[in-house]
Amino acid sequence: MFEDLKGSGLLIHHWDTDGICSARLLLEKLPKDIVNKTPVLGNYFLTSEELSEYSSYDFVIVVDMALPEENILRLAKQAKVLIFDHHLQQPIPGVFHQNPIGQGKDPLLYPSASWIVNEYLGNPVNMFALLGIVGDYEKRIQTNKTFYGLITDFCTKQHLSFDDLLMMVYLLDSNYKVGDRKAVEETPRLLLEYTDTQRILQNIRWKNNLTLLEKEIAKYIDAPSETKEHVLLKRIHTKFNIISTVTRKIAWNLGKDTVVVNTGFFNDRDQIYVRSGKDLQPLIQQGKMLGYRCGGKKEVLGAVVPKERSESFVREIVRFLSP
Q1: What is the domain range of residue 293?
Q2: Nearest alpha-carbon partner for 165 in 129, 204, 212
Q3: What's 68's domain CATH number?
Q4: Pairing assessment for the beta strands 226-228 and 96-98 based on DSSP bridges
Q5: Are residues 91 and 39 in the same domain?
Q6: Helix 145-158 crosses helix 127-137 at what angle (to 10 degrees)?
Q7: Is residue 272 domain-resident?
Q8: What is the pLDDT of residues 46-66, one digit of tens each?
């Protein structure tokens, strides 16, 4: 399957459960000396330093990250590039691109990068393919009869509950949320050894992370919000990478279009995250045209915006979401 990949290899993966589990599935099939990296936490792009370092590899695999086209083309000058993803993105000429969503397929049939990778590899249903799905959808996957049926069957055979899978997701995600990039990069290889689900559930380091994060997340969930044109807007200031979790919990609990701005993660930029019932593809494209690092899926937008332009983009988002 990867027989024609020769020389030195690099695997770039997203920092969340889906990215980590996708990387774990790929590492099982790739040469043992392949290097795996995640971008600077919070960046949906590669820095100039990363691009310089990564340009020395003969092949590069990108999984669960819709890196900007210019990043991919820079890597492709020196390396064979393969992408496995389920985010909204256009196919890039000269690059192997396994992304059914990018080809217009129904996102409900391809709920995670881990599922796409697992199908491509020809693997049976397994814990890592399913954890990526649960990581991206959490309890909302229960409304997807096909995949929730697969998850339920797996849990029954493994004597697990759905809440066990959710807890595994929270534990795996805890590394990036506390800002531990090294631990994120170590985890896919650790999961090669974790054939027993209890080893994930009982990892002391991850459990300690989670205790810390739960207090921080609760603080911002309970904090006051603004409402602008029927859109819920919340501003937070935290060094932890919890903006997606805070946005998800608020949006799903209240059933409202939600915008969260975090002013505390970067010194010179703000994180902006959106969840909506609307199709956010035009807004993602608008953000890119404005020069922001912007990406996501149909119902999700994540952006990193210079602080001086953050309020302007928030106004554009509210205008887009308003009835």
Answers
A1: 223-321
A2: 129
A3: 3.90.1640.30
A4: unpaired
A5: yes
A6: 130
A7: yes
A8: 999 999 999 999 999 999 999
162 pLDDT exceeds 90?
yes
**Is 217 within the bounds of a domain?**
no
- The count of domains in the chain is 2
Report the DSSP pairing between strands 35-37 and 9-13: parallel
Same domain, 94 and 197: yes
pLDDT attached to residue 102: 84
Which one, of 194, 57, 47, 212, lies nearest residue 126 by Cα?
194
pLDDT band with cut points at 50, 70 and 90 for residue 147: very high
Which pairing describes strands 9-13 and 59-63: parallel, antiparallel, or unpaired? Answer: parallel
Q: Provide the residue type at 3 as one letter.
A: E
Confidence of residue 134 (pLDDT cuts 50, 70, 90): very high
> Edge-to-edge strand order for the sheet containing 226-228?
226-228, 231-236, 258-262, 269-275, 300-306, 293-297
Residue 129, CA distances (Å) to 28, 50, 67, 253 in order: 13, 28, 22, 26
Strand order in the sheet with 35-37: 35-37, 9-13, 59-63, 80-84, 96-98
Residue given tokens 């290899």 in the structure block: 9
Q: Which amino acid is at 38?
A: T
Same domain flag for 46 and 171 = yes
In the predicted structure, residue 215 carries a pLDDT above the cut 90: yes
